[in-house]
Specification:
The structure is a single chain. This protein is an alpha/beta fold. The chain has two domains: 1-37; 38-175, D-Maltodextrin-Binding Protein, domain 2, CATH 3.40.190.10. Helix content is 52%, strand content 15%. It is built from six helices and five strands, in the order αβαβαβαββαα. The chain has helices at 2-37, 48-64, 78-86, 97-105, 137-147, 166-175, and strands at residues 40-44, 71-75, 92-96, 118-123, 127-132. Strands 2-1-3-5-4 form a five-stranded mixed beta sheet, with helices on both faces. α5 (137-147) crosses α6. The radius of gyration is 21 Å and the shape is globular. The termini are far apart.
Length: 177
């Protein structure tokens, strides 16, 4: 009787460990699928204005670029945004100018994350929509095109805090002649 109880306990523990590992991987795989279906605009809870602006950007993108199926995702801190962009789990984020500079340089609060290779996709007076430098040029061009002429003022006449994405540069050159 004792041996049977021990055997059942070991089997139950083994099943629990296997099930936990399967669930953990399933959630990550679902995040990959979700990211493939939606353009995720990252923002963070430390700067509440980014959430409101990110929602405006998502609304404009969904009106002008419906296939992007844009969504807002809020991270707890800007450091988490740096981590997600640096590990290619997030492609686009909305940051203040200072945060974008520090994230690109790996300085200030972003020192633990190192330099992050980001480029400007859209620039407003106070905020910058950044994307990973590896983002396809076509995608960044489409984002710039979808946001151009909106109630958000595209500040293409001023130098951005981080360099323009190559696709956005092509957009500016073609549309500002």
């Amino acid at each position: 009787m004792r041996r049977r109880d021990i055997l059942y306990a070991c089997c139950g523990l083994g099943c629990t460990i296997i099930t936990r590992d399967v669930w953990a991987h399933t959630l990550y795989n679902q995040w990959i699928v979700y990211r493939q279906k939606h353009l995720i605009i990252g923002c963070h809870k430390q700067d509440l204005a980014t959430y409101k602006l990110a929602k405006q950007i998502v609304t404009l993108l969904n009106q002008n670029l419906p296939k992007a199926s844009a969504r807002v995702a809020r991270a707890p801190t800007s450091g988490r945004i740096a981590s997600l962009i640096g590990t290619a789990q997030l492609d686009v984020a909305l940051l203040s100018h200072r945060e974008a500079i520090d994230m690109a340089d790996g300085s200030g609060m972003f020192k633990p994350y190192g330099k992050t290779d980001i480029r400007t996709l859209f620039l407003t007076q106070d905020y910058v929509l950044v994307g990973r430098a590896e983002m396809p040029d076509k995608h960044s061009w489409l984002i710039a095109h979808a946001l151009d002429g909106s109630e958000l003022k595209f500040q293409d006449k001023v130098d951005p805090p981080v360099p323009w994405h190559r696709g956005v540069m092509h957009f500016i050159q073609i549309n500002r002649r």
